[in-house]
């Protein structure tokens, strides 16, 4: 998820105080040997494994109503969304928000989003796909800009935590996107070379983060971006997670 902009998405700055954040850092699990032609998939969460885009729009419009902005449609959201996030707001409002406006929008959105997020389901077929890859000896991990202290409990509630060798949510600010988080995530994986890694996400920022570490990317159309926006990233664009995995294996085969 990114991702979706901080004031409009669960990936914004809801980080815990330093001591609490340190206590909820990710667990690391030793990676099994990888097959010569197998991809290690780094999954995105919001808008990719979690089918929450309609919840994002619902929470966005509820928060907009509180701060005096008109509603936005899913299609319009996908057309306007971009990273760096301030450019999204400039497109939406015709100007950059002040720091005070940003903080207010962020707080209001999160109140609405986290009140609704518990009802979100995994993307169709995601649970079976993750299980089948694990059973086949393929490795996969999860990297999200959703705050770590929110990410881990919701992943556990969906019963898929054990499908990943590592689960990393964000600790600290995410305004600049996922690239530096990807650097830390890949370093923590240890013995997975970047050329065997394929990032599967729903946003152009996922492709940028992959390129930042020398990995490949496949982008899924079910989340925050329009197809045209995804295609502009220059990486494969797919309409299902199953297709994303197929393409990922082709990219490293």
Automatic annotation (TrEMBL):
Superkingdom of source: Bacteria
Signal peptide residue numbers: none
GO molecular function, one term: phosphoglycolate phosphatase activity
Cited InterPro entries: HAD-like_hydrolase_sf (IPR050155), HAD-like_sf (IPR036412), HAD_sf (IPR023214), PGP-like_dom2 (IPR023198)
Record's GO cellular component terms: cytosol
Gene3D superfamilies with a match to the protein in the record: HAD superfamily/HAD-like, Putative phosphatase, domain 2
UniProt keyword annotations, A-Z: Hydrolase
BP GO terms, sorted: DNA repair
Protein name: HAD family hydrolase
């Amino acid at each position: 998820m990114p991702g979706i902009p901080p004031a409009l998405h669960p990936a914004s700055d809801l980080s815990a105080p330093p001591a609490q954040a340190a206590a909820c850092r990710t667990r690391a699990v030793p990676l099994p040997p990888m097959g010569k032609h197998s991809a290690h998939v780094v999954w995105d969460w919001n808008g990719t494994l979690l089918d929450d885009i309609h919840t994002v729009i619902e929470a966005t419009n509820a928060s907009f109503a509180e701060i005096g902005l008109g509603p936005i449609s899913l299609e319009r959201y996908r057309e306007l969304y971009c990273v760096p996030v301030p450019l999204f707001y400039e497109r939406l409002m015709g100007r950059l928000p002040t720091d005070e406006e940003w903080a207010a929008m962020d707080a209001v959105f999160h109140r609405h989003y986290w009140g609704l997020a518990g009802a979100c389901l995994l993307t169709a077929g995601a649970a079976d796909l993750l299980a089948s890859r694990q059973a086949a000896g393929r490795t996969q991990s999860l990297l999200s800009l959703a705050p770590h202290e929110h990410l881990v409990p919701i992943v556990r509630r969906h019963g898929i935590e054990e499908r990943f060798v590592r689960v990393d949510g964000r600790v600290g600010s995410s305004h600049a996107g996922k690239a530096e988080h990807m650097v830390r995530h890949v370093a923590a994986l240890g013995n997975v070379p970047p050329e065997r890694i394929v990032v599967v996400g729903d946003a152009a920022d996922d492709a940028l983060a992959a390129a930042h570490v020398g990995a490949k990317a496949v982008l899924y159309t079910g989340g925050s971006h329009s197809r045209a926006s995804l295609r502009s990233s220059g990486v494969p664009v797919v309409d299902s997670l199953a297709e994303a995995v197929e393409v990922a294996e082709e990219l490293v085969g």
